[in-house]
Amino acid sequence: MTCAIFLELLAREASPVEFEAPLLEARAAGVPPEELAELERTKLAALRVRTLLERRARREAELSALFDTAGDLAGLRDLDAVLEAIVRRARRLLHADISYMTLNDDERGDTYMRVTDGSVSAAFRALRLPMGAGLGGLVAQTATPYTSADYPADERFHHMSFIDTAVSEEGLVAILGVPMRLGARGIGVLYAANRSARPFVQEEVTLLGSLAAHAAIAIDNARLLEETRAALEELSSANKLIQARSAAVERAAQAHDRMTALVVRGGGVEDVAAVVTDVLGGALVVLDSEGRRLAALGGDLDESDIEEAAAASRSLGRTVQRGGLWVTSMAAGAEVLGTLVLRTSDDMPDPDQRILERAALVTALLLLFRRSVAEAEGRVRGELLNDLLTNRADQEALRDRAKLVGVDLTAPHILVVARHNGDRQRAAFWATSHASLRHGLVATRGDEVILLLPGTTPGPEARQVARDLTAALGHPATAGAAGPIHTPTDIASAHREAERCAEALLSLGRSGDGASSDELGFVGLLVGDGRDVPAFLTSALGPVLAYDERRGTALIQTLETYFAAGCSLSRASERLHIHVNTVTQRLDRVAQLLGEDWQSPDRSLELQLALRLNRLRTAL
């Protein structure tokens, strides 16, 4: 009966105070102490269940808000409506009295109020903050989150009278601000604030940061859509002027419309290439800024003259002909994003050249959009893996953040450390793409990239990463792996193990290879700190190695078999399929080369380690 009362309270979402009523009634009725104690335990259990239900409901609301925001971005039509929805959701999810957003003004060098929710002060809504001034100006300048439980009394910030006056008029006390970034550039700040002193916890900072990332994408999407609308307006104007021209002009208009529609509905580089080859014929290759193919349709091309033609196209700002090739570059301002190369047997009139140039512009827009989305996702994934490596956040919160980017931390994973010899930008680009395709995480540190990938086989995973990254970089990349990892708390130790493994491979001279710590065994622990393996092998086995190489003998094999047989001459002869006297003669030769004390305990241990290292070193 007692349980039923508390279950009914849970079912109607009663307040915590109401859970005291059954206990008070029992005391008033003179219930025995043991029953009161049982009733107290039941009440505490019910309150714990209520707290758990509230927490889950709050997480469901947070996830729902993030998904709703992603839906708003997918159907972006009105930037103001999307930003207002994000600010409103931030206020609701953080239970804040007010939320607002400022955007950086690069021309004036300050940040200004863009959207507010819950504000009552006109002066506050019109506020502009100099860079570095107040909490918001500091976040805008450093692109780093800041929080203050009592801002008016917080001496960490540079207070200015007109800012403090506006904050005081709004009645704000506790303020949290997180940066909105596109790549490494800060574009604004998203805030949540209260009119009473209250600290903000890390989960709230993370949640507001996720909403800020969505807001940054919305602003960037709006910019891209505005450029697309400008391109569409230009196409429409051109279409009115050339209605009386030939069929080639009509074909250009159709091509322009098709490519614009591709951008609006989210098409890719291959779709734009398909439009070009369909309209102009011939064979088209789309290259990125480093000459790698992004798309190829209609056949292969001789690329020997492409680079010279691309340089000429960039300098002239138009399509350039080189033999049967028509080349135009894709650029955004001073940044070259790639090249379009068309091979056709026909002459290309000006309208057809404009089609190719328009294709370059549309492709550039698509590449910029894809890069901005990838940078935002890569930043989220990198921050999450760094938190996992340092164990700085609540494990349940880390799992929730991982789910938002499609990573299931309850499944087994492999931790891979890949050394890239200083080619950080290209290695990070490859690793981000690879981790995204595999539903994993990636972070960069110094001369290594760290990948957390789903799987249970660390050795094959390390070798695959080493092969693919080597191909992407054009020089050897070495990978060490550890795992499988079943809980997030094991990720930090797995990272240290994978680092030692990669260091061991480099020490063994196996640059460009991959392996797990299990495959290296104890050798990984011995050689992982930059020890000189070749010098050690020369010191321990040099005379024997040189003798075998010079005379084609098998003294090294005999030594390995002799130690493996427990130093038994008879068992060694059986395994080598030779007479025991032959084994004795070979070991006598070893004694002549290494000295009579080669079987002493210290020398024996050194020789067995050297033999193991030599076998691993030659297993390339």
Produce a short descriptive summary.
The protein is α+β, with helices and mostly antiparallel strands and 620 residues long. The protein is built from 23 helices and 16 strands. A six-stranded antiparallel sheet has the order 3-2-1-6-5-4, sandwiched between helices. It has a five-stranded antiparallel sheet with strand order 8-7-11-10-9.
Strand content: 15-25%
> Roughly what is the average pLDDT, rounded to an integer?
78
Number of helices: 23
Task: List low-pLDDT spans.
Answer: none
Helical residues, percent: 55-70%
Shape: flat
Q: For the terminal residues, how far apart are their CA atoms?
A: 73 Å
Structural class: alpha+beta
- Tell me about the largest β-sheet: 6 strands, antiparallel
Strand order of the largest sheet: 3-2-1-6-5-4
Number of strands: 16
Cα Rg: 34 Å
Polypeptide structure, described:
The protein is α+β, with helices and mostly antiparallel strands and 620 residues long. Helices cover 57% and strands 16% of the residues. The chain has helices at residues 2-11, 21-28, 33-74, 79-93, 122-125, 134-142, 161-170, 202-241, 247-264, 269-280, 306-316, 350-390, 395-404, 424-437, 458-473, 491-507, 517-520, 523-527, 533-551, 555-564, 569-576, 580-594, 601-617; strands spanning 98-105, 110-117, 128-130, 146-148, 174-182, 185-194, 283-288, 293-297, 320-322, 325-332, 335-343, 413-419, 441-445, 448-454, 478-485, 514-516. A six-stranded antiparallel β-sheet has the order 3-2-1-6-5-4, with helices on both faces. The chain is flat and about 100 Å long. The relative contact order is 0.05.
